[in-house]
Amino acid sequence: MNNIHSLRKLMRFLKYYSIIVTLLIGVLLYAGFRQLDETMKLKELTVEKINVVDQEGRVRVLLAGSFPPRRAELAGLLFVNQEGTECGGLVYTGQKKEGNISAGAALTMDQYNDDQIVALQYDQDNGKRKQGLTIADRPDKLGPETLRAYGILDTMAEGSRRDSLAKLLFSKVPADQLPARRIFIGRDENKSALVVLSDRRGKPRIRFMVDSLGTASISFLDSNGKVVRRIE
Questions:
Q1: Which long-range contacts (CB under 8 A, 24 or more apart) does 170-175 make?
Q2: Distance between CA atoms of 165 and 167, rounded to whole angstroms?
Q3: What is the pTM of this model?
Q4: Could you tell me if 181 and 197 are in contact, meaning their C-beta atoms sit under 8 angstroms apart?
Q5: Residues 65, 75: contact at Cβ < 8 Å?
Q6: For residues 167 and 14, what is the distance between their CA atoms, to the nearest angstrom?
Q7: pLDDT digits (tens, 9 = 90+) for 129-171
Q8: Which of 211, 231, 202 has the alpha carbon at shortest distance from 219?
Q9: What distances in angstroms separate CA 2 from CA 5, 7, 12, 13, 64, one per listed residue?
């Protein structure tokens, strides 16, 4: 009889125990799923890349410590439109090697399905530095030569090899398909403050300048870059 009584007590204990455990698990699961819809607060988070998505699950912003293969040296943000195409970004780099400072930062805005048309940039290399705002024109529709050039160059890392190939590929692109810098406002490598206005081919036509010695001038240029009139 004692054994039967003890067995019944054990069964009742296991029954209550299973009920309590089930309730605890339910509470924990509820709290966990509820946490997904609430703001999560962390003191520190270490990651290589974060994809920010919209309500449809589409990646709209990439935050990363590098963007290989072409921009492995850059960190920052890339902006993506609803179709999955990059449309601008905020990136930067900077390091000192063998006494030479190589650094830069850029905030860019891209034309739809194309490259940048507005850029606020800073570049420093081998003792030379320039910074400023650039506004450019690009064709409304890319031709086959331009698409081929971008298709090849986008898979390559930045460097002299890519620069040489880019020069070769774009030499075969019709002039009306090439980007043209229309406005530049900034400071050049000669320490001059500049405002340069260019034509639709990217040829400078008016240059407002205060040079490194403080001399102010306005220059008018022809389509070949020759100064036809200068006011000081």
A1: 172/145, 173/143, 173/145, 173/146, 173/149, 174/143, 174/145, 175/201
A2: 5
A3: 0.76
A4: no
A5: yes
A6: 79
A7: 999 999 999 998 888 888 888 888 888 887 788 889 988 988 8
A8: 231
A9: 5, 8, 15, 16, 69
